[in-house]
# Entry
Amino acid sequence: MILYLVLVVGLIIAMLAGPYFLGRRRVSRAVNEPYECGIVPVGSAQYRVPIPFYLFAIFFVIFDLEAVFLYAWSVAVKEVGWAGFIEALVFIVILLVALLYLWRMGALDWRTTRQKRDRARVQPR
Amino acid sequence: MNDIGTSAVQSTWLLNVVNVVAILVFVVGSAAFTTWVERRMLGIWQDRYGPNRVGPFGVLQVLADMIKLLWKEDWVPSFADKFVFVVAPTIAMFVVVAAFAVVPVAPGIGVVDLNVGLLFFLAMTSLGVYAVMFGAYASDNKYALLGGLRAAAQMVSYEVFMGLSLMGVVMLTGTFNLREIVHAQEDGWFFIPQFIGMVIFFIAGIAESHRTPFDLPEAEHELTAGFHTEYSGMKFGMFFIGEYVSVLLTAAMMTVLFFGGWLGPTWGFLAYIPPVFWFLLKAGILVLLMILIRGSLPRPRYDQLMAFGWKAMLPLAMVNLLITAVVVLL
Amino acid sequence: MCFHQAVPRDRRSNAINNKELKIGVEMQATAFNILFYFTAAVAVLSSIIMITRYNAVHALLYLIVSSLSMAIIFYLLGAPFAATLEVIIYAGAIMILFVFVVMMLNLGQKAVEQEKLWLQPKVWILPSVLVFALLFVLLGAMQGTGVSQQVNLVSAKQVGITLFGPYLLVVELASFLLLAGLIGAYHIARSPDARAGGTARQHDIDQNVDRVGGNQEQGGQA
# Structure
């Protein structure tokens, strides 16, 4: 295992170092500009990112924690029997309710208002 | 440790080294080879030529590409966060290749036999997000940042139920050890009792390696190349190889968990074919299936992608888990 | 070199003696010690580097390394389940949230300069002294208990049996906690006009789009 990981790291270092020695360097006017399909960049790329991404990171942490509890359950499902099943059922239902709540509140909805409205206009017919 | 163990170890020490080196070479080599297979197959399915100039059927295209990447300029953008910029592709490649360590290819072939092999695989895939996020952050490019954020949000969304979808198999076997899971399938492969789990895992696996139809992070019509817009040369190559190793990893894990790993038919002359052949055959078919999916499916909208993950796949994975538990307990 | 030679043995013994991770042979004990102290050193070093970084993303990178080496230590001490959880939860989920937050604030060079200002010696000297005092207390408490060679393995199955047996109520409480966290996070993070759908940012864009496309649609609806 350790040998394998050492070899993987070695391979990666070789892949990084190879072009360093083999590749040639060029200097030209546009090399040190961010690539935006040939358009001259305006402003900086350090803007603040939309909140939903952060929100989903939180959802992910919480559901990942839940998944970990379920990992522990599923490996011992035979040993803990029906008592454990009922416990896990309650556990899952509580989190499904949370998911349902978020769903109802529209937290899982990434559509823009325009997309929502377009959808609403199409459906009634 | 018992005596048998010690003596066996003494004689097989060299064999272990050969084993490890062979697996590493094979994984990286076949990832490179898969790039050719994919281009060629896409060519066939989309009624055009694939690479067909270098060598017979263009097989040597892989070699040509590699030489090209190696001789490219080793360029780190002057505006980038240089340290993180180099670390990101390293993570991309390291985690997927490291995850291959737990894949049991055949009896006696495999890097390590961990008791928590399945969890090790999940742990390594969960680290894959960093490659995307750090790559996006370090590039200091608007497209890269947007693509990276999309990729990260997508990967974490699909990761949640990726683990859950595999827990059905764990329930049936009562272990995280991948070799034991393969042995447990001698009576029947798990894709029948765990069909839902398999489908969910397959979808999550494709999304984790962000390939079409889940390749919105690098959707070229809106985000140039997504998080690796600023990457070139071998550093891009590492993201690229990482993606293909990830494809192979998904195929290998599906083979191990749902299609009986190295187990093959035991009647007639078929019993004499070495088990590694069956493993490669199954994994190869799954890789082809993933290429076919890429060749045939359109790309969804981002909100559809997220809604599919959270509103369909996640509850389905949980329900699948509960049903499996009931069946196991009855 | 004994380090490298001992490794295949170790893993072989794992394969043969799945149930117990007994490290009896001298060579394995050394390999174990070397591995343990190596990862411990990596953990401590990366933590120190982490708190001295000015750039938040670099600091996070070292924090990830630190928690990965913690995972290896957990594994060496006979808790493979805890080890993988350390990676899945800490390195693979919570740190990702941190990275998201750092990227969300995305202050760039300004933040680095501010961090430099904050990390003046007069700021960190007193906490460090206190921490060192704590360390000595801890060392005193640990007197005589070295690294235990006799590792007893806690398998994932045992963890599951304990969690879903005697600690039944705790798991349910955890689920309530997660529920509260989920809903709390949503309500804190949602923007005032989230009810209308989308974020403030998206909303702005949509408003513009609506304004542009509005005329045609009005015509269509009328």
Observations:
- Confidence is low (pLDDT under 50) at residues 1-24, 194-222 of chain C.
- The radius of gyration of chain C is 26 Å.
